[in-house]
């Protein structure tokens, strides 16, 4: 029986969203927040524009790519893009986890597009990327937060294409390399890789996406929160910090503080290196641990942010789905009781197991401290269930 470890992570927050705040974060980071003032005041507009410009620079976006702060987190940003841009041509939709499956349902059941091809794969796998037709619009999730599976690269997307490429990249931006010229619509939220506060989304558009907005009008009505044009032209002010609805200036201040922290740890390259280092610690532990495996089947598709684990111990794996889920919940409960790890259960629609966020705001020492506790929780839960 593994002895209960003594060393605990300094920060037990391993949730996949909202994610851990940057190391060293304190309420002092918010002391200059523009509270009680309009976001349309001169200082309010200045801060919002600063947020978009600094993001644009840190991500290394092409100069002619537009970026806006929009409502309702990544979900709002992606819905805004789909409802505004889809319908001009056929669409290929890729899904291999919960959120990608959600986009399929929205396109088929709510937008009710007629010319839709879906390419789906089980949790842990990717669909066949060679079958995608880029004469059509293409929808995919860059990093499957609920499956721990990401696209290995962007080589499968041609530089010249007739359709638009939409990437839901909320757990990939600021953690994984994205070939911007292979994408036309990219969305993310502050609450993921940067550990920001929820409810604000970021929408990135290529020149081709802008051209679509200005030349195509959907057959369905668009609610005010989705409208990106005025009199047939792009609403340029939206992409200069003039948000559609009222943002939280407290959250804006927190986001700006997170961006300043990114600069201190080496910018985009430094943040991606932190995530890679954290992920490597867990991957190496998986390789030497018999009871667990990465849900991602192919090594090149393993996420470096949301690592999903399946329990492969023969005794546990042979149990019913409900019993396997109960076992994973027992492990999660043990770790929470000891304040070692919070919110690491598998996503509700995903196979039972564990899900550990290892993005750049997580310290490697905390990952190293967590691993012995995972072994302890497994053995403790197994012993308890055998006694029952």
CATH architecture of the largest domain: 3-Layer(aba) Sandwich
Output the CATH topology of the largest domain.
Answer: Aspartate Aminotransferase, domain 2
Described by the principal axes of the CA atoms, the overall outline is: globular
Mean model confidence by pLDDT:
97
Task: List how many beta strands DSSP finds.
Answer: 14
* Count of spatially separate domains: 2
The percent range for strand residues is 5-15%
Report the end-to-end length measured between terminal Cα atoms. Answer: 17 Å
Low-confidence stretches: none
CATH superfamily of the largest domain: Type I PLP-dependent aspartate aminotransferase-like (Major domain)
Structural class: alpha/beta
- Binned, the helix content reads 25-40%
Radius of gyration: 22 Å
Strand and helix order: HEHEHEEEEEEEHEEHHEEHHEH
Q: What is the CATH domain class of the largest domain?
A: Alpha Beta
How is the biggest beta sheet arranged?
Answer: 7 strands, mixed
